[in-house]
Write a structure and sequence with these properties.
The structure holds two protein chains of two kinds.
Chain A (H helix, E strand, L loop, with lengths): L1 H17 L20 H5 L6 H4 L2 E5 L7 H17 L2 E5 L6 H13 L4 E4 L4 H13 L4 E4 L14 E3 L2 H14 L4 E6 L5 H14 L2 E6 L5 H14 L5 E4 L2 H13 L7 E5 L3 H9 L4 E4 L2 H18 L9 E2 L3 E4 L3 H6 L6
Parallel strand pairs in A: 1-2, 1-3, 3-4, 4-5, 5-11, 6-7, 6-8, 8-9, 9-10
Antiparallel strand pairs in A: 10-12
Chain B lengths: L1 H5 L11 H6 L4 H21 L9 H26 L7 H17 L5 H26 L3 H24 L3 E3 L2 H4 L3 H7 L1 E4 L2 E4 L1 H18 L1 H11 L1 H6 L4 H27 L1 E3 L6 H11 L11 H20 L7 H23 L5
Antiparallel strand pairs in B: 1-4, 2-3
Classes of the chains: A alpha/beta, B mainly alpha.
């Protein structure tokens, strides 16, 4: 991992030296050389006049640049800036550090932007900073995390996925596939978001759901305990894992026990393995929170708020998920893995 | 300068011009560097049309100073330790661990904030003393000893917090500390011309002044230089080497506890990942400030300028809209340039030929 990051930095440096033009960023569509600084990129495709070119939208998240999930979020931010013809500047702490993130929000506010997008993983730590931005008259939209607190902070709207609604959707889809008795495999006990997924799943399925906890630090053990749970619970015909890291051992366990055709397996979130399993029919579907939209939409909303006073949601959150990936659209998703999915 | 060298032959002590004296101070490179970095970002801001906002605003300055102060508190203490020839890689984890202890005591066990703060410092001092003791007793390099402690403290933080709260964040401190006068010592702030200046600036100032005074005006300061130059030689002339080192390890741990108190009390939550990478930022601060990795030479005042460079760069990159993916590239480059410049200046100023 470390090695790869070093290499990426080196490659990026070469790229930057070789071609000091914003055009370089189109090659990969990746984070390197994004819209941020260059006025050329900011005005590209701009339909509006000077207003847009002078619009600066700040984005501060807790997602580290090296995290593949957030790199797709950032692609959405960059594309939003290009499509709207506004300037976007993205920052995130280099570790999961709420103190640093608070300082970055303060710095973003000091730039007097026309809009601010923040993720709120820790409301206690970030609340005062966001409140200060709102008090300074900056329109703020929260994205990805913060659905429970955005209203109390005076944030315009929240763009993200409701875990419970997404879980419910998974339950309904399973029910439609004939599942009556399912396991919900939780790979990260104590994460409230994952608990909400299981709860929604139970509601949506309307049948029997048993929660199984697995330890991912021990893949073999995880696989064994999933296999044991299936045999232990009578008449299980469905299984939902709450992330790709749980999906891989579940898939292996079910394949090993030759249970797959009869037992329907589905998961939250995407990975190459998950997509391939959907393509081959081993998995029924995957729930995608579509974080590209979590980066893209706030830029659109804030631009239109700034230009025309248009704000969607009416204080209610704007949901980017659940997006469903199944056999019908898996090829399209596979083709866009790493850029928008 | 030529006249100074011309008269040198007749006197036992060569007279040195004040300019050369300043040039030969360890913090000279950092002072110049701080000015340069500030100017670069100021020019970039003007080119963007950012005057009165962003980097060139009171609000922006307050932000830069806060970031500088937080790392500067660690940097001053780490400088002293590095001058004595030792490393402390556990300060970052200590920021996390002391903060969690503080948070858990207040939120989970209802301990009054004052006592919790004292407990956090006591814990840090004990771990610091243990680091020093282990270093002296085993003769292992402090790099290894404190690397072990880095992992242990981080692990204890995660393990204990998850066991007690089954969560990785301890939040809700503000309800207990909002009206606590002692907590105010760590959280107060004052509004000047639209910028919110935090009390951490005074702590930083205090720590840097105290460290500089100890280093340049006291016998203990001489001992630090002696130990860092050669601890064998220092021992021969009667310097209590072990005591000096143990005290310095306790100082770095205490500086981490101080930062933990400031962060946790003003943010209102503690987190198992707080303080990650701070150990490296503190070392960068010290080295950019003119302290030699090999010990025996350096300055606590220089670390303050090193911290300012770090804070200016960290926020400056965001202010002028450089893609933050590149932050570490810029930081690493500044570190290398600063160290090269320091080495060059040191050689020039001390009159050595190369």
């Amino acid at each position: 991992m470390q090695q790869r990051r070093k290499f990426a930095a080196l490659a990026g440096l070469v790229l930057a030296i070789a071609a000091c033009t914003p055009a370089a960023s189109t090659a990969s569509g990746s984070a390197a050389g994004s819209a941020g600084t260059s006025p050329a990129a900011a005005s590209a495709g701009a339909a509006g006049g000077g207003d847009r070119a002078n619009t600066l939208i700040e984005v501060v998240t807790h997602g580290q640049a090296s995290d593949p999930f957030w790199s797709i979020f950032k692609n959405g931010v960059d594309q939003g800036g290009k499509d709207m013809g506004v300037k976007v500047e993205y920052s995130a702490p280099d570790t999961f550090d709420m103190v640093k993130m608070g300082q970055l929000i303060d710095a973003a506010v000091a730039k007097k932007p026309q809009g601010l997008v923040v993720s709120i993983p820790d409301a206690a730590a970030l609340g005062p900073h966001i409140k200060a931005a709102v008090d300074a008259g900056i329109p703020v939209i929260s994205a990805n995390s913060g659905s429970d607190v955005y209203q109390s902070l005076g944030v315009l709207t929240h763009v993200g996925q409701s875990e419970e609604i997404a879980g419910k959707k998974a339950g309904e889809l399973m029910k439609a596939a004939g599942v009556t008795n399912a396991l919900c495999v939780n790979q990260e006990v104590g994460n409230a978001g994952l608990d909400a997924r299981c709860k929604g799943f139970t509601d949506g399925l309307g049948g029997t759901v048993k929660v199984v906890q697995v330890d991912l630090k021990d893949p073999t053990g995880a696989q064994q305990s999933i296999a044991a749970a299936v045999q232990g619970a009578q008449g299980v015909n469905g299984m939902l894992t709450l992330g790709p890291t749980g999906a891989a051992p579940a898939l292996a366990a079910l394949k090993g026990a030759n249970l797959l055709p009869n037992l329907k397996l589905a998961t939250f979130d995407l990975s190459k393995d998950v997509l391939n399993a959907i393509k081959s029919g081993d998995m029924l579907f995957a729930i995608d929170q579509q974080q590209y939209l979590q980066g893209y939409l706030p830029i659109v909303f804030l631009t239109y708020d700034n230009l025309y006073g248009l704000v969607p949601g009416g204080g209610q959150p704007v949901l980017t998920g659940p997006g469903i990936v199944d056999k019908t659209n898996v090829d399209k998703v596979l083709a866009n893995t790493g850029t928008t999915r | 300068m030529t006249s100074a060298t011309a008269t040198a032959g007749t006197q036992r002590l060569r007279s040195v011009s004040p300019v050369r004296l300043f040039l030969s101070r360890p913090e000279f490179g950092a002072v110049v560097g701080a000015l340069m970095v500030f100017l670069i970002f100021a020019v970039l801001s003007v080119l963007r049309g950012d005057v009165g906002k962003g980097f060139l605003s009171v609000q922006g300055l307050a932000g830069i100073l806060e970031v500088s102060a937080q790392v500067g508190i660690l940097g001053a203490a780490v400088s002293l330790l590095m001058i004595a020839g030792e490393f402390d890689l556990s300060v970052g984890s200590m920021v996390g661990a002391a903060g969690l202890l503080l948070g858990l005591l207040i939120v989970q066990y209802g301990v009054p904030p004052t006592i919790a703060i004292v407990a956090a410092f006591a814990f840090a001092l004990a771990v610091g003393a243990f680091n020093g003791w282990l270093r002296i007793k085993t003769g292992l390099p402090s790099f290894i000893v404190t690397l072990g402690m880095l992992l242990i403290l981080r692990g204890i933080g995660i393990g204990v917090t998850r066991a007690i709260t089954s969560n990785t964040i301890v939040s809700g401190l503000s309800t207990y500390t909002a009206n606590d006068p002692v907590a105010q010592l760590f959280t107060a702030s004052v509004n000047i011309a639209g910028g919110s200046f935090k009390v951490v600036l005074l702590w930083w100032l205090g720590v840097v002044i105290a460290a500089t005074w100890v280093l340049t005006r006291t016998r203990f300061g001489n001992w630090i230089f002696a130990v860092g130059g050669s601890d064998q030689a220092a021992r021969y002339v009667g310097v209590p080497v072990s005591r000096v080192k143990v005290i310095l390890f306790m100082t770095t741990a205490a500086s981490a506890a101080l930062l933990a108190c400031i962060q946790v009390l003003s943010v209102g939550s503690a987190d198992v990942l707080r303080g990650q990478n701070k150990e490296f930022e503190a070392i960068i601060t010290a080295v950019v400030g003119g302290t030699l990795l090999t010990g025996g030479y350096g300055s606590a005042l220089g670390s303050a300028f090193g911290a300012f460079i770090l804070g200016t760069t960290q926020l400056g990159i965001n202010f002028v809209g450089i893609n933050s993916d590149w932050y570490q590239v810029v930081m690493g480059s500044i570190l290398l340039i600063a160290v090269l410049a320091n080495t060059y200046l040191l050689r020039r100023a001390s009159g050595a030929r190369s």
